[in-house]
Amino acid sequence: MAEKKETNFKVVADNRRARFDYEIGETFEAGMILTGTEVKSLRTGKATIGESYASLDKAGELYLVNATIPEYLQANRFNHAPKRQRKLLLNSREIIRVAKGLEREGMTLVPLKIYFNARGRAKIELALGRGKKLHDKRETEKQRDWNREKSRLLRERN
Question: Deepest of 11, 31, 109, 151, by most Cβ within 10 A of its Cβ?
Answer without folding.
Answer: 109
